[in-house]
Amino acid sequence: MPTPELSDVAKNLVLAGKGILAADESFGTIQKRFDRIDVVSTEETRQAYREMLFTTPDLEQHISGVILFDETIRQAAVDGTPFAEILSKKGIIPGIKVDKGAKPMAGFPGERITEGLDGLRERLGEYRELGARFAKWRAVIIIGEEIPSSVCINANTFAMARYAALCQEAGIVPIVEPEVLMDGDHDIGRCAKVSESTWVSLFSALHQHRVMLEGLLLKTNMVLPGKKCDKQASVDEIAEATVRSLRRTVPPDMPGIVFLSGGQGPIEATERLNAMNAMGDHPWGLSFSYGRALQQPAINAWKGEASNVPAAQNALFHRAKCNGAARDGKYSVEMEKQAS
Ligand code: 13P
How large is the average pLDDT for residues 131-140? Predict the structure, then answer.
């Protein structure tokens, strides 16, 4: 049976003023991020980059947890202290990405199914020993003319529920992450429909798999028009559409929903989260688990140079602070002027 520790960890990840830093880029994804700053991705450069992020002074003021990649949870700072220990000493909860990626789904052209259940029980046991107290599993749902199919949605949420049950058995809080992608020219209404169908399927699968909602977090997309849609939406339209769809489909017993940034600009992602929290009280904490929206200014300032570490850390701290304020509906664009 899930322990009370699970619900404590889940609640602590969405405390007021704080959210999650997603730093779990796989080898392929971190290479893409490094390509933009002309840095070759090697074990050493990945270590240096992540050490810069995790040793940011006062990061714990606004960051409750960090999602790590398999290589990263086994890495240490140059002084030999494991990254997971650096984080937990600051009061930041270490987490781990455990899925093995979204692969083309046989028989369903254009759709993807996330793999990674084989051997997961054993891997979770090892990750717990290494310090992980929460985990993440991401599925992607792609909008196209005739997709997503209900088979793709249900296959993904079923696998996600099996993952969540294994996490709770291991004493690890599962973050379930269905991401409806922003790619395409669909409008915001279509994103709302697909997101609602996905969340309904997910919570049904979680219920069937006897997953304890109090010891779980949902990480998901905001309800947005596709990137190529002619009719883009205002900050308030996005906030209202997202909250409406979530209220229709997500049970109130779950402690929190953390958004991914998914290609939104750093300031956009902050403004939209802020608008949702400024609407008033919600049944769950609404917070962030951003990758790019937190890291982009920092990686651009870093450029692979040790001499740029203080500037990069300032940039990360600034975005964490702005998003921490947005977590409580207290952000204003004036805060952007404080960036040094
Ligand atoms: P982005 O915020 O860059 O979308 O990353 C979040 C994440 O963890 C995706 O799985």
Answer: 98
The catalytic position among 177, 179, 196, 271 is 177
Residue 182, SS3?
Answer: coil
Q: DSSP for 198-224, please give it.
A: HHHHHHHHHHHTT--GGG-EEEE----
Using DSSP's 3-state secondary structure scheme, residue 100 falls into coil
Active-site residue, 330 included: no
319 in contact with ligand 1, CB cutoff 6 A: no
Count other C-beta atoms under 10 Å from residue 114's C-beta.
22
Domain extent, residue 287, equals 4-338
For 304, counting Cβ atoms within 10 Å of its Cβ (0-12 exposed, 13-18 middle, 19+ buried), the class is middle
Question: Domain containing 114 — which CATH number?
Answer: 3.20.20.70
Count of domains forming the chain: 1
Is the Cβ atom of 65 under 6 angstroms away from ligand 1? no
Closest residue by Cα to atom 9, ligand 1, is 260
For residue 291 and ligand 1, the question of a CB distance below 6 A is answered with yes
pLDDT confidence tier of residue 339, bands split at 50, 70 and 90: confident
